[in-house]
Specification:
It contains 18 helices and 13 strands. The protein is an alpha/beta fold and 472 residues long. Strands 1-2-10-7-8-9-13 form a seven-stranded mixed beta sheet, with helices on both faces. It has a four-stranded parallel beta sheet with strand order 5-4-3-6, with helices on both faces.
Length: 472
Amino acid sequence: MTRDMSYDAVMARRPEIMKKAVGIDYEIFESGSIAFDYEKMMRETGYSLQEIEEIQGRTGVGNTPVFELRNLTELARKFAPKGKGARIFVKDEAGNPSGSFKARRAATACYHAKKLGYKGVIAATSGNYGAAVASQAAMQGLKCIIVQECYDSRGVGQPEIIEKARACEAYGAEVVQLTVGPELFYTFLVLLEETGYFNASLYSPFGIAGVETLGYELSMEFREREGKYPDVVVITNAGGGNLTGTARGLIKAGATNTQIVGASVSLQGLHMASDTQFNKKSFTTGHTGFGIPFATWPDRSDVPRSAARPLRYIDRYVTMNQGTVFYMTELLAQLEGLERGPAGNTALSAAFKLAQEMDEDQIIVVQETEYTGAGKHINPQLTFAKENGIEVIIGDPADEIPGKNIILPKDPSYIKLQELDLNKTRRSYIRNAADHVKATKATKEDIDFLVEDTKSNAEFVKSVLDELGISY
């Protein structure tokens, strides 16, 4: 019997496809209401943190170096009040096989796929994760397909995305390139169903558990090197997996007092699924177009329940403009001799400014870097922006309008951060969680879950439920 391959029919089969492609029955974690058993889902990986470290070590993943950015610290102190200016460190994840921390996620997913007997893996991503999955699949002897949202309707693709496609192909993966739009997830599901391959999702428990080693490793390094845990760890936030995994690793290491700060590039006003706006942004990841939607509703991802729950762990969320990240990329290269890509430098931009609020004896860590290359370098990115009608100027970043201009700071004193209202984000999340199950009444279990999932308290959750007219 021929299966109905219409869009609606494939989407209706999503739970069935996902269960087969991930090897997890997500229904066993559901309560039938708002709450679900998140920690039980995380335990479903079946691997301890130490086992995951061993799995990653077999393919050369992890044990990346930590650098103290002394020159950037000295520069930050020049713009800080007396006695302020924390020491800035960076964990250099560009040393992983595919050039980013996402090799940690991919190593775990591909190992598990091989262990379960899958012949191949599939991932839907336009970012570094595609190259990471392709690289790890090659090491495990698995077939690999990467589904990539690559072009606008004119057939024009961003230099960074094109480079990542070439990297995937270099590792032997088949790359399915699509134009921006809703067909990405449909194509992903169709391929999973047709091939029977493993869904190497960014947002599965395996993917998030893979990043826990980063937080744990980082904690241990600072405890041994400095005799204490970092005071602040700054994490570039997009889909939330980086922040979630790192925070969980920090907690497992005992660094429970370390403040977790999420950082994203502000692309306010640009819609990520808009064909006309697709090439108006200069960052393919680490921006608010992913950071905000995934924080307010994580379960919009390619698995039934996302293991990336950033609101569970985040203490503070800041944004900066595109020009500031380009500027910090140059400073890192010219002051520290490290040329790295823009994703990690988003967190670095935040750390440079946040360090000026902190005492000199405190430690702030940028928890990852990524490789840079032909399409990821700032020159092709700024050239591409100009070709798409974006004005690139030097001035006050506060005047930047995403999609219209990119403003590089006149000097370091112009670097500024915007503070996001986390309570507003938490309210949006609770509203989306309630709407997801059409809730009219919340149980104590639901309230306890929402408190954990928003890192808030029962009084706050109940106040939002009152606003929504949901009894409890």
